[in-house]
Inverse folding.
C-alpha cells in the first residue's frame, strides 16, 4: 500500500489530488498517517508511531487503519502502479 | 509524555455543487446531561439502552399547551391519552397537572382507575369496548364515546339493566380538507350518520347525551383543519339545542397535534416548522367562539392530545456497538437500541446527538439497531462525529408511543427512568429478564426436554 506521492496536503487537512482535480478534507490524525505513508513508512511503523502518541489500543487502531486505507483506495488516492503490482 | 485523544482517521471528498437552499447546520452539540443528570452516570446505574423521561419537560409542555387554550377560551380540560404512554408515573404527572384520563380499552380503563382517577373523569373511546367494559364504565359514571351503531344498540340494551343512565357522546368523523380523512372511527358528519345516531340516542331516552367528540387524524400539520372540525361539531351541538332543546356539556376535539419530531421526507426540522399549541388553539377556539353559542353557555372544550405533550420529554440513551463500512463506502453505525424500542423510527427522523464531546469532523452515517432484521434502521442518513465502539448517543423526542408500542422482540426491553424536577432519577419500569418473559409460557409435558 503506497500513497500517491503527488498529493498535496496542507497543515489544516486540505488535500488535493492533482491527477484528478479532486479535493478532500482530512482530520489531523488522518493527515499524519498520510504524511507517514508519503515518507514510505510501513503499516507496522505507522501503527507504532500512532500508538506512542495517541490513547488507542492496537486492535482498534488496526481496524481503523485498515478502514482508512480502504477509503483511500476508494477515492483512488493510492499509487496506481503499486496497486496493480499487488 | 501525555498521549493525545484518539479519533479515527477520516477523509471526506469535497463536493463543490450548488449550495442547498435548505442547508442546515450539521454539527450535533453533545447531550452530556439530561435535566442536570450526567448521561454517563445514568448508564452506569441503569444500563444501556435506557429510556429517560423528563418530568420537568412534561410539566412545562403541559402548562404551555394549557395556557395556549385557556387564554383563548373560558372552559378547557385536557384528558391524558393513555395509549401514548401509560406508565403510571407518567400518567400521574399529567393527572397532578389536572388532566383527566382518555382510554381506549378495558385494560387502559383499569389502569386509569388504578392510578386513582375519578371514574367521572375517564373518557372511554375506541371501537372495541366489550359489554362488560361498557357496563362497568357506565355504572361508574365514566364518559362513554360511542363509535358505531352496534355499540349504540348494545349500550341502549345494557342501559335497561343499570341503576344509572350511561353518560355518552358520539365520535364524529368528517371532511376537514385534509388527507387521509379518518372515517373508520365514529359516525360521519357529511352523510348524516352523525345525526342518525344523535336522533337514536335522544329518542331512546335511555342514554344521557353529554358531549360530542371528534379526532380528525394524527400529526396534523395544518391547524386550520381543527377549525373546520370545531365548526362542524358546534353545528351539531346547536342543532341539538334547536331540535331537542338539549344542551351538551362538552365538545371533545380529540388529539392529533404534531410534536417537534420531523416526518421522513420533510425538508426542514419539525421543531421549526410544525404548528405550535397556539396555532391549534387559535383555530379551535376561534371556530367555537364564532359558532353561535351564547357566551354564557359555551361548552367545555376537551383536548386529548398525547404525542405533542410527551414526545419531547422522552430520550433513549444508547451505546455504539460497532461501526462498519457498507459496500458503497458509506459509514454505518450499529447501536444497542433498535426499532423494537423505537417504533417511531419508521416515520420520524429522530434527532440523535452524541453524549460526549468530539472534534468538528462529521461523517454521514446510517444508524442500525442491534436486531438481526433488515428493517432495523434507526436513521437512514445523519451526520455524526467519528464514533467509536462504546460511545454513547442520545435519541431525542421518543416519549410518545414507544413505551406502549415497543416490542419484546429478539431482545429484552430495558429500564425506564424518570428524572424529577430536582434532578434525581427514579426507576419507573424494571428491565425485562428471561424469567419475566418465560413466566407466561407453557410447554406441554411431552415437549419438555430434548432427546
Amino acid at each position: 500500500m503506497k500513497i500517491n506521492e503527488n498529493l498535496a496536503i496542507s497543515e489544516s487537512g486540505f488535500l488535493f489530488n492533482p491527477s484528478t482535480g479532486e479535493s478532500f478534507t482530512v482530520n489531523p490524525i488522518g493527515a499524519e498517517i498520510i504524511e507517514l505513508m508519503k515518507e514510505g513508512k510501513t503499516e507496522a511503523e505507522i501503527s507504532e508511531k500512532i500508538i506512542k502518541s495517541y490513547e488507542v489500543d492496537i486492535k482498534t487502531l488496526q481496524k481503523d487503519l485498515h478502514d482508512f486505507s480502504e477509503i483511500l483506495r476508494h477515492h483512488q488516492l493510492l499509487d496506481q502502479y503499486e496497486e496493480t503490482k499487488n | 509524555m501525555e498521549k493525545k485523544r484518539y479519533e479515527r482517521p477520516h477523509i471526506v471528498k469535497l463536493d463543490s455543487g450548488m449550495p442547498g437552499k435548505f442547508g442546515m447546520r450539521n454539527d450535533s452539540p453533545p447531550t452530556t446531561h439530561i435535566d442536570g443528570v450526567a448521561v454517563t452516570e445514568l448508564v452506569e446505574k441503569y444500563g444501556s439502552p435506557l429510556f429517560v423521561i423528563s418530568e420537568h419537560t412534561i410539566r412545562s409542555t403541559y402548562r404551555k399547551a394549557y395556557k395556549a387554550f385557556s387564554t383563548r377560551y373560558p372552559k378547557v380540560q385536557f384528558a391524558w391519552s393513555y395509549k401514548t404512554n401509560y406508565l403510571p408515573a407518567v400518567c400521574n404527572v399529567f393527572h397532578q397537572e389536572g388532566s383527566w384520563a382518555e382510554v381506549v380499552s378495558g385494560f387502559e380503563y383499569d389502569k386509569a382507575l388504578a392510578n386513582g382517577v375519578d371514574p367521572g373523569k375517564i373518557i372511554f373511546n375506541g371501537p372495541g369496548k366489550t359489554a362488560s367494559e361498557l357496563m362497568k364504565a357506565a355504572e361508574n359514571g365514566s364518559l362513554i364515546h360511542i363509535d358505531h351503531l352496534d355499540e349504540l344498540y348494545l349500550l341502549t340494551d345494557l342501559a335497561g339493566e343499570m341503576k344509572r343512565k350511561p353518560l355518552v357522546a358520539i365520535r364524529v368523523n368528517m371532511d376537514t380538507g385534509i388527507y387521509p380523512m379518518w372515517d373508520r372511527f365514529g359516525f360521519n358528519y357529511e352523510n348524516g350518520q352523525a345525526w342518525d345516531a344523535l336522533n337514536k340516542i335522544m329518542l331512546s331516552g335511555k342514554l344521557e347525551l353529554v358531549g360530542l367528540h371528534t379526532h380528525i387524524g394524527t400529526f396534523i400539520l395544518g391547524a386550520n383543519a381543527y377549525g373546520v372540525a370545531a365548526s362542524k361539531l358546534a353545528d351539531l351541538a346547536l342543532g341539538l339545542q334547536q331540535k331537542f332543546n338539549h344542551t351538551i356539556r362538552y365538545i371533545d376535539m380529540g388529539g392529533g397535534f404534531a410534536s417537534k419530531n420531523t416526518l421522513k421526507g420533510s425538508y426542514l426540522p419539525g421543531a421549526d416548522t410544525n404548528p405550535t399549541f397556539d396555532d391549534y388553539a387559535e383555530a379551535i377556539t376561534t371556530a367555537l367562539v364564532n359558532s353561535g353559542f351564547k357566551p354564557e353557555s359555551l361548552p367545555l372544550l376537551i383536548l386529548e392530545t398525547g404525542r405533542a405533550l410527551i414526545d419531547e420529554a422522552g430520550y433513549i440513551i444508547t451505546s455504539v456497538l460497532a461501526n462498519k463500512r457498507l459496500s458503497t463506502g458509506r459509514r454505518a453505525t450499529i447501536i444497542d437500541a433498535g426499532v423494537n424500542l423505537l417504533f417511531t423510527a419508521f416515520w420520524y427522523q429522530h434527532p440523535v446527538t452524541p453524549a460526549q464531546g468530539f472534534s468538528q469532523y462529521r461523517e454521514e452515517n446510517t444508524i442500525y439497531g442491534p436486531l438481526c432484521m433488515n428493517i432495523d434502521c434507526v436513521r437512514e442518513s445523519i451526520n455524526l462525529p467519528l464514533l467509536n465502539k462504546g460511545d454513547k448517543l442520545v435519541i431525542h423526542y421518543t416519549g410518545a408511543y414507544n413505551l406502549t408500542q415497543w416490542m419484546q422482540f429478539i431482545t429484552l426491553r430495558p429500564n425506564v427512568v424518570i428524572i424529577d424536577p430536582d434532578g434525581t432519577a427514579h426507576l419507573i419500569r424494571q428491565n425485562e429478564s428471561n424469567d419475566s418473559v418465560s413466566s407466561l409460557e407453557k410447554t406441554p409435558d411431552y415437549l419438555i426436554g430434548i432427546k
